[in-house]
Amino acid sequence: MKLPILLPIRKFALALCVSAGLTACSFSGDEDHIRTVVIDDDEVRINPVGTRLNHSSSTMRMAIARGLVGFDESGRVVPALAARWIITDDGLSYIFRLGEARWDDGRQVTSERIARLLTERFAELKNSRLRNDLQVIDEVISMTGRVIEIRLNAPSPNFLQLLAQPEFGLFRAGHGAGPMRLIDEERGMKLGVFEEPSGGDDEAEEDNRWVLLNRESAAQAIARFDAGFVDVILNGRFYHLPLIDQSSIDSNNLQLDPIAGLFGLRFVSADGFWTVPENREILSMAIDRPALLTSFPSVTAWKIRQKIVPEALDVEGINARPDWSSMTIEGRREFARNHVQSWKATEGDIKPLIIGLPDAPGADILFLRVQSDLKRVGLDAQRVGMNDEADVKLIDEVAPYDSARWFLSRLTCEQTAICLNDADTKLADADAATNLDIKAQLYAEVEQQLVDHYNYIPLGVPVRWSLARPGQRGFSVNPRGWHPLNPLVGIPIS
């Protein structure tokens, strides 16, 4: 366990203060100049192009490349390149009217160009995290005037939330259309106002609002925030939380997004004992979820999960919770212990469960908790890295939009070898259904099949945290988990 050798955040922050001068170690409160850090461990440069964007690249793309719609600081879908839109009664057509806009080389944004760029982008993103979500799109058509139509092959009530994802920010020959522009790269990505405001007959006053965007490790980012060098930190994960506990940061600065998604153990391989769904059920029964989540004192309201799809998306009459959900943890442990003893008596020893986890302090806590729970029922576990061969690997993903389909698609045979062909077939039937009630009913039936299959062991809701001082302009916790940069300095998206 790595907790004893965690970076001493407070000492690191003090060292930063001493090296930079005491005046640098206080919050400036300058709301027109914001220093932002995204916690990311891979790649050196913030590169907003491509299809497999990390969080910092996605944040950069949101700032300099508008799509038809976008997210505001509260996670609501708002107009971007599209000034308004309508949805046909059958839910199969989304019609957008473009506003007046130009690319950053001065060229006019046209419906013909946008339709072509969207078609190309949809094709490119078939290799991205959104590849399953794009199957609903039939075609993109440039209509008369400044109108674009996107036709779907089945209704998708939350399609606008999908279109607002950072990946759908558009570039034309390397040029974006705001709401911000890159003005300097000397000490990070310095982003300013996309267009100078018109001053009429008078010379326009220079608008010097900017956001400085950098990418750093969690330890360095937290220390710099503690020392007053950073105003906002984005993309904190559960496994970074022990670093927060070691710092002197005021708890009021810790902002938790009320997101939905998958946080649990997904089976990617199985051998011996773990090939049987009833035995994988024992793993789910044995884990004490409340004790696991309360091992992270920074997050007092972390919600546990025993099922796949959030309750808000449930279909009336179908309860996809496991059969043991009403049992006490003591009763579950006794049942699991007896089951394991019976198996060992007839089949022999059981190999430890191999768990793939990130190399981080919070992941150490999670593993030790799960291993301890398994030992209570006569099982054991071993830990490996996320890129190593394992029986189960942690899945920690935020749902990009509100749909049961997204949750279920993460557990198909395309995603993992431990899957259920019947569930995949029913999921395809649900995707093709044009009646929303029938679609929802089929999705609920798929969830029930997957819950009984136990190729995924839910633990809780994903954690995404930020650091921002109370009252920070343009920042708000939200259910999407995206925090655009332009509102931080009062720059509108359209």
Verbal overview:
- With 494 residues, the chain is an alpha+beta fold.
- The chain has 13 helices and 18 strands.
- The chain has helices spanning 9-20, 55-64, 111-124, 159-163, 218-227, 241-246, 277-286, 289-293, 329-347, 361-375, 404-409, 421-432, 436-453, and strands spanning 33-39, 69-71, 77-79, 82-87, 93-98, 137-142, 147-152, 180-184, 189-193, 210-216, 232-236, 254-256, 261-267, 353-357, 381-385, 392-398, 456-460, 465-468.
- The strands form 4 sheets. Strands 8-9-10-1-11-18-12 form a 7-stranded mixed sheet. The protein has a 5-stranded mixed sheet with strand order 15-14-16-13-17. Strands 4-5-7-6 form a 4-stranded antiparallel sheet, covered by helices on one side.
- Helix 1 (9-20) crosses helix 5 and helix 12 (421-432) runs antiparallel to helix 13.
- It starts with 8 loop residues before the first helix and ends in a 26-residue tail after the last strand.
- Residues 1-7 and 17-26 have low confidence and may be disordered.
Strand-pairing-aware structural class? alpha+beta
Mind summarizing the main beta sheet? Answer: 7 strands, mixed
Pick out the low-confidence regions: 1-7, 17-26
Question: Total number of β-strand segments?
Answer: 18
Task: Please give the radius of gyration in angstroms.
Answer: 24 Å
* Strand arrangement across the biggest beta sheet: 8-9-10-1-11-18-12
The overall pLDDT, averaged over residues, is: 91
| Number of distinct helices | 13
Strand proportion, as a percent range, falls in: 15-25%
The rough form would be described as globular
Portion of residues within helices: 25-40%
State the separation between the terminal residues, measured CA to CA. Answer: 49 Å
